[in-house]
Design a protein that fits this description.
It is built from 11 helices and 20 strands. By secondary structure, it is α+β, with helices and mostly antiparallel strands. Strands 1, 2, 3, 4, 5, 6, 7 and 8 form an 8-stranded mixed β-sheet that branches. The chain has a 5-stranded antiparallel β-sheet with strand order 9-10-11-20-12. Strands 15-18-17-16-19 form a 5-stranded mixed β-sheet, with no helix packed on it. Strand 17 and strand 18 form a beta hairpin. The N and C termini lie far apart (74 Å).
């Protein structure tokens, strides 16, 4: 293949309209934008106006690709994590009757994006069809990632095309984090995270259905041995984060462990406390990504590990069908609701595939093995919490 010449540069202030038009052209047939603006005649104008707001926002960084023979053929748009929220009111105005779709996306994004700072989010990335397959996209992405890597700044994006670990995003180390953002059958976003730089068995479930009351809560009996029973809270009874700070952490030093074994434990009566058995908790780490789970601990109250969820609620620890989730016929058994009977995610004590991520059970009952951020908090839109577990003398 002949060498394809192009340059990558920052956009000039006077080029906002041209770049917005290029982005809109590139996204015209994108399934997600076809859902966002279902009128073919209006889509190009509305999406271009939408990107004009982003391109004019304080802190926005945008690059374009130019070819001597084809002109401007690609563009990327990056926004800082702390971009002025006023831009969403501006986008509401320019998209008009389609504001509910765009607003739904921005609202979900705020709940799915990393609960940390600083980071940059890639909000626009287009290479025109006639220039695809020539290395343009990889070069464009690398151009800004090199700048961010030098500054030690991680990045986040929500891809509108299915992500299976390959393509340009996989090549540069992006990996799934949290859950898919589903708006319709044809409108799905795939949240992906990239650290600064490149950091680079089947068990039988216990089908015990017995539910007991203890300490003012309902508990599901998972196991029974030596006059002791293992209990898992029937509902997600606490909206706590796994850890309050975005940092590398394991169960032994997590804030949720401290809370469960102090404040939460103190809510039980003295008689109930005497029934709770201090347990040796094994923290063997993430079995898919070989990430260390930290040292073993002794706890009165703890969270289940991935291995324990599979053992007691069902599943295949090794999956050939999906690289990022344990997703199988046991999903329904792993689903949970909170005390308001709303579907909710629940956090496990096993780390994800990076030391500041922790595995979770999703709304659909899948186990997200790549994990979510340790300081993910629960919100009105993004329900997440913990299901305490404990061994007690037989009740």
């Amino acid at each position: 293949m002949a060498k394809f010449d192009f340059i990558i540069r920052d956009i000039n202030p006077g080029e906002i309209e041209t770049v917005a038009d290029l982005l809109s052209t590139g996204y015209y047939h994108d399934k997600f934008f076809k859902w966002s603006v279902d009128c073919d005649d209006s889509r190009h104008r509305i999406v271009a106006n939408y990107y004009k707001i982003y391109l004019g926002a304080a802190g926005c960084v945008s690059h374009v690709v130019e070819s001597p023979t084809m002109g401007m053929i690609g563009a990327s748009v990056w926004l800082p994590h702390d971009v002025d929220g006023g831009i969403y009111h501006e986008t509401d105005k320019v998209v008009g009757e389609y504001a509910p779709q765009f607003r739904a996306v921005s609202d979900r994004s705020h709940d799915s994006e990393p609960p940390m700072a600083p980071f940059y989010q890639l909000v626009g990335f287009v290479v025109l069809r006639e220039a695809q397959g020539m290395g343009v996209g990889g070069a464009l992405l690398k151009y800004h990632l090199d700048i961010l890597d030098a500054a030690g700044i991680p990045t986040y994006l929500e891809a509108s095309t299915p992500y299976f670990g390959g393509g340009v995003y996989g090549k540069f180390g992006y990996q799934p984090v949290g859950e898919l953002m589903v708006f319709a059958d044809t409108a799905v976003l795939y949240p992906l995270w990239r650290p600064a730089g490149r950091e680079k068995e089947s068990l039988c479930p216990n089908h015990q259905n017995r539910v007991v009351s203890f300490g003012g809560h309902k508990w599901r009996v998972l196991d029974e041995r030596d006059n002791k029973v293992l209990l898992l809270s029937e509902k997600i009874i606490l909206p706590n984060k796994y850890h309050d700070v975005f940092e590398n952490i394991t169960w032994a030093d997590s804030d949720v462990r401290k809370f469960l074994n102090s404040d939460f434990y103190s809510e039980f009566t003295e008689a109930e406390q005497k029934q709770i058995v201090e347990t040796q908790v094994s923290n063997c780490g993430n079995p898919w990504y070989c990430l260390d789970g930290g040292g073993d601990t002794r706890d009165k109250i703890f969270l289940l590990s991935v291995q324990e969820v599979v053992r007691y609620l069902g599943g295949q620890l090794k999956s050939s069908n999906n690289k990022f989730f344990i997703d199988d016929e046991y999903n329904d058994a792993r689903k949970a609701t909170n005390t308001d009977n709303l579907p909710s995610r629940w956090v496990l004590r096993t780390p994800g595939n990076l030391p500041y991520l922790v595995t979770i059970v999703t709304l659909e009952g899948k186990i997200a093995m790549t994990g979510d951020f340790v300081n993910r908090s629960s919100s009105e839109l993004f329900k997440v919490g913990v299901r305490p577990a404990l061994w007690v003398r037989s009740i």
